[in-house]
Amino acid sequence: MNNVVIMGSTDFTLDCIKKAMFLDNVNIVAIITPEDTKKDRKGNIILSPPSAFAIEEHIPLFKPENINDEHFQKVLKELNIDFIIVVAYGKILSSKTLAIPKIGALNIHGSILPALRGASPVEHALIYGFNQTGTTLQKMSNKLDEGDIILQKEFKIKNEWSHFELYEEIKISGVEVLEDFFNDTEYYMKNAEVQNAKKATYCKKIKKEEGRINFKNKAKSIHNQVRAFSDWPICYCYYNEILLKVYKTKVLDENRLANKDHGLVVEVTPDSLLVQTASGLISILEVQRPSKKRQNIREFLNGMKIKKDEYLS
User: Fold this and answer.
1) CATH number of this structure's domain 2-203
2) Which of 29, 61, 113, 123 has its CA 20 to 30 A from that of 256?
3) What is the pLDDT of residue 274?
4) What number of other Cβ atoms are within 10 A of residue 227's Cβ?
5) Domain spans of the chain, in order of start
6) Alpha-carbon span 12 to 60, nearest angstrom
7) Cis amide linkage into residue 121, ω under 30° from 0
8) Which of 75, 109, 67, 87 is nearest to 6 (CA)?
9) 2-203 with 208-303: one CATH topology?
10) Gap between the Cα atoms of 233 and 213, Å rounded
11) Cβ contacts of residue 121 below 8 Å, gap of 6+?
């Protein structure tokens, strides 16, 4: 039986916890999450999914302010840990903390490493227009996502997928990786492979301002941006200084070039709003204006009379 601590704060973390609970050779001795800081409209603290589940299932729960504090390291040592499993924890573990488990500290990462090391692999797989991605179980090291690769699951990205669909598939593959690993931990630990650093790429944490649409970019790039940010921060542009959040788009006439009319509305019908980009037309399909609900383009155009030859910026 392996004594396991799982660290993380998201629904992905929770999916892995639920899977680990029913594995014959896993004993979850604790769940560790960051301190819960989000509040509802009444000012009440909103528990993260792992926090709420730990309380409900009476699993020991820790929310250390500093995961690498000497006092908390003593707490971890007393748990007699075989494995630490990190799934979207968001904090760096020191060398001393990584050395606490008897067998290893492992991390589930949402890309096929060494591609897309860093904080936003799901978003950047879409931004870059990848046809494939997956999930990696890796040994943790002091450097960002550079640990030896233990297991990987790869799958194709469907053209119609946005962030939600890709993230759901990442979660499924992450749970499968975890299950496979605990079927034969000794084999997988012994056969872990060093990453090829020459093939490494990186992705930083997404900033809200990265959602701004620039119609000087190609239609395909804008479309991928909208797909990637459909959960957060949501892409946006302006029409006569009115902010428009854009949730869904389609690329048309991909090779149509523009010399200067970037953002020009070239066609408006009851079911289409076509905008010129640097290369190709972008068809806006779902949008939201301030104080209104998210609408399909027909509903939106019924309330906002955008005309041909006007501009979005």
Assistant:
1) 3.40.50.170
2) 123
3) 96
4) 26
5) 2-203, 208-303
6) 19
7) no
8) 87
9) no
10) 12
11) 109, 110, 111, 115, 133, 203
| Tokens read off for 306 | 């955008």
Closest CA to 294 of 219, 213, 231: 231
Q: pLDDT tens, 116-140?
A: 999 999 999 999 999 999 999 999 9
d(CA 146, CA 114): 7
Buried b (16+ CB within 10 A) or exposed e, 238-251: ebeeeebbbbbbeb
**Topology annotation, domain 208-303:** Methionyl-tRNA Fmet Formyltransferase; Chain A, domain 2 (3.10.25)
Q: Which position has the token pair 């804008």?
A: 222
Distance CA 153, CA 188 (A): 14
Which residue numbers in the chain have pLDDT < 50? none
Total residue length of the chain: 313
User: Hunting for tokens 């604790």 — which residue is that?
Assistant: 30
Retrieve residue 180's tokens.
Answer: 């496979």
Whole-number pLDDT of residue 256: 76
φ/ψ of residue 200, rounded to 5: -70, 140
Structure tokens at 275: 């905008």
Tokens of 25: 């050779």
| Helix 11-21, helix 163-183: angle, nearest 10 | 30
